[in-house]
Design a protein that fits this description.
Number of helices: 1
Number of domains: 2
CATH class of the largest domain: Mainly Beta
Strand content: 35-45%
Largest sheet: 8 strands, antiparallel
Order of helices and strands: EEEEEEEEEEEEEEEEEEEHEEEEE
Radius of gyration: 21 Å
Oligomer: single chain
CATH topology of the largest domain: Jelly Rolls
Number of strands: 24
CATH superfamily of the largest domain: Galactose-binding domain-like
Structural class: mainly beta
Length: 334
């Protein structure tokens, strides 16, 4: 069977700093839909780009990598309700119909609600995207102008059809901390994001902030073998500025290719563009000076953490190269 990969899509610059609140890796889930006869609705929340497998069929028909409903033979439309992985302010939507050519919806609209307790019986649904025409096999980016916080999204497709991926880009709203709670301020679910990096030949640094431990060596940040002086680095933005109490560096699955050492520089900064941060980061003070690494191991640092009032960004230096699975920055929002 021939498998086609989705064409590379360049996420618009203004969306890149935002978090996909509908990412199943951070707990987003389908809690109801009108129909998903041909393809399960939960597939459209997957992180990886959609694929098309030629000649792959199941008991319902052609297998599609996304959500697909049956052909509607009566009045109405199809819908799916998504519980966001974390509450947030929605700033953009991507309704992706990649590989849906003769079976994409004619149009789509989006409604939202705030229900932190999960009870949708009495909530008021607010339309943030009016009914818009869709195209076959295409990304449809819609900018949203609202500062309200929402927990649930309802995607309505007219009258039926398929959506490969549905992404809800926004600003994570960390719920009020209980009893000065300690959080991983770098975690994807708490709004952490990648700013820049020197190399990502074998694995992207965005994997560093994923939930859980890495599932294999591909689920981490891994650079190519360095043949010139220096070391590899990546810049990460915390979801919320805070004071760091503990650092964890996990080299899970990296055995013959873990870095010799890792150091972390950090800063608190406001109103700087991502491009301005890159040259500045060379001179940031250290949060964690260079520490020796071991293969396939969680390294925990508490006493070694150099206390700072608060930080908003870090620079991870991987000396000289290699792979890291996860990085956790445990601290309190300031």
């Amino acid at each position: 069977m021939a498998t086609l990969l989705a064409p590379i899509f360049d996420v618009p610059t203004h969306i890149q700093p935002l978090t996909n609140l509908a990412d199943d890796r951070i707990g987003a889930e389908i809690i109801g839909c009108s129909d998903d006869f041909f393809a399960e609705a939960k597939r459209m929340l997957q992180f990886h780009p959609p694929i098309f497998v030629e000649d792959k069929f199941d008991e319902h028909g052609k297998w599609m990598d996304g959500w697909e409903t049956r052909r509607k033979r009566y009045a109405g439309y199809d819908w799916a309700i998504i519980k966001l992985g974390v509450a947030g302010k929605i700033k953009a939507l991507d309704i992706d119909t990649t590989f849906f050519t003769g079976n994409y919806p004619a149009s789509a609209a989006v409604e939202v609600a705030y229900a932190p307790d999960g009870d949708l019986n009495s909530v008021k649904w607010i339309k943030i995207l009016k009914n818009n025409i869709l195209n076959p096999s295409d990304h449809h980016i819609f900018n949203i102008d609202t500062d309200q916080v929402f927990t649930h999204v309802r995607l309505n497709i007219y009258p039926d059809g398929g959506v490969a991926r549905f992404k809800v880009y926004g600003e994570v709203q960390i719920q009020r901390q209980r009893n000065n709670e300690t959080l991983d301020l770098l975690a994807l679910k708490n709004g952490g994001r990648v700013v820049a990096y020197s190399d990502a030949h074998f694995g992207h640094p965005r994997n560093l902030i994923n939930p859980g431990r890495g599932i294999n060596m591909g689920d981490g940040w891994e650079t190519k073998r360095r043949r010139t002086p220096g070391f590899d680095w990546c810049l990460l933005a915390l979801g919320q500025s805070g004071k760091i109490e503990k650092v964890e560096i996990d080299t899970a699955h990296f055995k013959g290719n873990f870095p010799a050492q890792v150091s972390i520089q950090a800063i608190y900064i406001e109103d700087a563009t991502d491009q301005q941060l890159i040259p500045q980061s060379m001179f940031w003070p250290f949060l964690l000076e260079a520490q020796d690494m071991q293969m396939d191991h969680i390294h925990t640092f508490i006493e070694e953490v150099l206390k700072q009032e608060k930080i908003s960004h870090i620079r991870v230096n991987m000396i000289p190269d290699g792979g890291i699975s996860r990085i956790r920055l445990w601290g309190k929002v300031d």
